[in-house]
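Issue 218. Parser rejects a valid record. Input:
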Amino acid sequence: MTFRNDIDITKDLIADHGLKPDEYQKILELIGREPSLTELGIFSAMWNEHCSYKSSKKWLRTLPTEGERVIQGPGENAGVVDIGDGQAVVFKMESHNHPSYIEPYQGAATGVGGILRDVFTMGARPIAAMNALRFGAPEHEKTRHLVSGVVAGVGGYGNSFGVPTVGGEVEFDARYNGNILVNAFAAGLADTDKIFYSKAEGVGLPVVYLGAKTGRDGVGGATMASAEFGDDIDEKRPTVQVGDPFTEKRLLEACLELMATGAVIAIQDMGAAGLTCSAVEMGAKGDLGIELDLDQVPVREENMTPYEMMLSESQERMLMVLRPEKEAEARAVFEKWELDFATVGKTTDDLRFRVLWQGTEVANLPIKELGDEAPEYDRPRTEFKKPRPLGKVPSDFDVANAVFTLVSNANGASRRWVWEQYDHLIQSNTLQIPGGDAGVVRVEGHDTKALAFSVDVTPRYCEADAREGGKQAVAECWRNLTAVGAVPLASTDNLNFGNPEKPEIMGQFAEAIMGIGEACRELDFPIVSGNVSLYNETNGIGILPTPAIGGVGLIADWSKMARIGFEEEGQAIVLIGAPSQWGSHLGQSSWLRDVVGRIEGSPPPVDLEHERKAGEFVRNLIEQGITRSVHDCSDGGLAVALAEMAIASGIGAQVNQLNDVSPIETFFGEDQGRYVVALDPRNLDVVWEKAARREVSAFWIGNTGGDSLILGEARAISVEALIQAHESWFPDYMDDEPSAAATA
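Output the parser choked on:
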């Protein structure tokens, strides 16, 4: 028997598979011979950065992953968190960056499809989706095309599948010109006693292939996503998967129906590295071997080789280990849903991963070592150097003009053009649509319970100081959940960075992880799932470090939740959590970048003890019914927070005179841990008493009312004009873009 399949394993072939010479030498030592081409592909799939986390495992282990409500942390398809009443929320966030830059529509669409499968593979019905998108400079020649394709792909898949998109982020920066980011989040509901896992159990049991047929799309996709781009980007187009949301919807219903029969022992989504990764992970977790017969795999293309079948990332596919006595019943379920059902292998007791094709054994590898012996690196990293202090800033800027600039530019304008292309009301449970601090979805079957979702990160903070930036990403996500009245439960991360082989990038990564871990521990906000996306570079130019944090919170009574807009005229406006009565920190602020044209200084420091105290205080005000109007202060500081509250409600506000305090620092400083709330003036004494008892600062700064926003001594800003400016940028920018259908 030959294992080479008549293909010479050359140095160039090894390099093309993303394997370093020392990694290939380790393969030779593990198997005691030269691998076949199929085996080389299997090692490439299992040992690439995307699947093995070989540069990040050391640091990921430092993150807090356990908590009182955590049922399942990292290591499965998605995290699982108890929400009471015998139910759990299942959620995860994952990247599809490289594919979306190459082919924006299909890259984004299959990113949505993949994250939805991660959730329903666990036995959960998806109830909410979000996305975090980063594009290059608006003026870059590719940006409009990429925005149009990605947004159409996200909407095309999510809308057709039938899950509401309730939140997310869209930002622009020239550092993403050559490598956009598409991070997809999904959450679902499941019964706590009906969670499904990927660990295979039992010897001689059928391994069953379910869903769509296998094609050549996506072959080598995981390996492609584990390397930076060069000038050969267009040649990588065949590595991008092609999705079908209607097949995925049928797959969801078939899987949930099959799970209810008791037939499923283990289940794994065929995502990155397709059949290879799903089969190896299921067997290795159960200390079992797996034997596959590729002649039984349903294919949609002729003359597919074993290499192509093992590395295809065709979408809408699952692998299961089933109870033999239930196999016929299971087949009937999938035939009813007009999906493929094929027994393609069996579990064994020899800890080998065997692949058969046309009567020939084309792979025979130690299954545990494929995962457990994958390389793990402690890559060199440079120590963080504090940024230079912020230089003197001008103090004579017109406050009103600055507000208009900040709410109407590429990064401050309304994202309505984006989210109106997503169905955010399907399933009829959405309580808060995109545009506020967090999306909120009612828990079906309960009269009062709801879940809140948010995703956040400020990349410019992370580049200036990765540790503070990591802390701030967690804190802002936690704040956004708090601002609607939710108790933050747990989080998921999507860590997007450049080339980890560069010490400065590895230094950023490590510092960010340390900041994230510190914040999650202090705020009881454990990381239960996530994804690392490295090598986000083109021709050596890396993205901004972008460790996105997605969070889930629980609202006990959604009738009391808060919203971003002012509730009514004549209410008192209170600033909660400010270290002094106003703001002060202008380093790395939006005002400095977008109004002054400078990016410098340190990001605002994050005091986690203060974050917790201020957040718990605000949440108590919401729970007690004292306020229904809450917004956290973030990009643009107090001025933008007030402007956004006025825009959301159409109600103006007047803020007190400032005396000798600098209006620029006051209104545009991005000091952390602050909330703006509006409430009945008769409740102010109650607020002062509660604030004093909890040792949280709370200052009355003005009142709601009228049709203008008046900030100190600045000229009045028409709320109608603010709304017009805020809503205009995106549709004006996209006006000349060809239709999405033309780019799909």
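Fixed in the parser; the record now loads. Confidence is low (pLDDT under 50) at residues 738-744.
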